[in-house]
Amino acid sequence: MGMGMGAARGGAGAGGWVPGERWRRVLFLALASVSFLISLILLFLSAPRLRLPSIAPSTAAASAIRRGPDAPPCLAYLLTGARGDGRRLLRLFLAIYHPRNRYVLHLSADAPDDERRSLANGVLAAAPAVGAFDNVAVVGDPTAGTPVGSSGLAGTLRAAAVLLRLHPDWDWFLTLNAADYPLVTQDDLIHVLSSVPRDLNFIDHTSDIGSKEPEKVQQMIVDAGIYLCISLIGSPWVILNRQFIEYCVLAWENLPRILLMYFNNVIQPQEGYFHSVICNSLEFRNFTVNNDLRFMARDDPAQTEPPFLSREHYGQMVDSGAPFARPFRENDPLLDQIDGNILKRWSHGPVPGAWCSGRKRWFSDPCSQWDDVNIVRPGPQAVKLHLYVNRTLEEAKSSSNSCRR
């Protein structure tokens, strides 16, 4: 894999190419560069968002947020759903909302505009802090939502570009689907991640594809030096640091753009693109943790997809210490159990945190008023999360199933 980066950086180790082959290679890289630059311009300039209604953002509120290495981390979330997922996406959003964080909500192109507007209206009605901190965007011109084909990856890169353009001050980029749900509060998560090096990337990956290879990945030599990287797949749900996202979106080297051209033509590119880029990048491959920080039940190892979670999984799920779990059915009673026992979320508002200063009454939301958003107050589940993250980091140091060198 080390050869891949050398080739992508400008042809190091490319001796032996005959003149005709060298010119074809140069022409391919030039076309790839032009194509990527055009795509990049479109990413930054043609990513409209729905304006959340009526309330102007507060400069004082936004400026009160401390940023930087000595401040609590800022998380940038991409929440995705398909037609009919508007209510699920709103519930997920309220379960993970915090004024310090950034959010992009994406309902796929098959969802009607009315559903997108209803989602935008619901966000502001349920979480008034959104209007003051201006930290939520609802994508107004979405891509298709199918996991098959290039549209899902295009939507993810587009959302990442929007977050870089609107809010270039976050630390990690997290992807969640309407079938996901948190098992910790944002106070818990921010508190634990405060002690984690911010150059790490949590991305589940493997090169042991086995029988899945013909179905998901078609091996093809796009460059003789990066052949091996195409054999990586993993979880499409990732937690990536801002520097790596900038590397993929801005692509100041050839590797991200060459692999993007390749993965635009595979069946499920989100299960291989980021994994292949990071494991073949000299700059980032030693900062990977081979875990996506999700709990999923694997009742039958032969199943390609995990089963829906139910109440029988509750104890195992909570004891795992993982910050997120999937997949859940819409309005499953298990979600109410998580809201009541772990998140302490009630009514139709966000999960209360240290930032909420209002009184908790049956007719009022404590998060309709707020105080210092730089303070977090971890709860009991933070202890399990801390142990889970520490164990994951220790395994990353000793595991051979990683792209670290």
From TrEMBL:
The keyword Glycosyltransferase applies. It is found in: Membrane. The keyword Transferase applies. It is a single-pass type II membrane protein. One of its GO terms (molecular function) is glucuronosyltransferase activity. Keywords: Glycoprotein, Glycosyltransferase, Membrane, Transferase, Transmembrane, Transmembrane helix. It holds the Pfam family Branch. InterPro entries: GLCAT14A/B/C, Glyco_trans_14. GO terms for cellular component: membrane. The chain crosses the membrane at residues 26-45. This is BGGP Beta-1-3-galactosyl-O-glycosyl-glycoprotein. It comes from Paspalum notatum var. saurae.
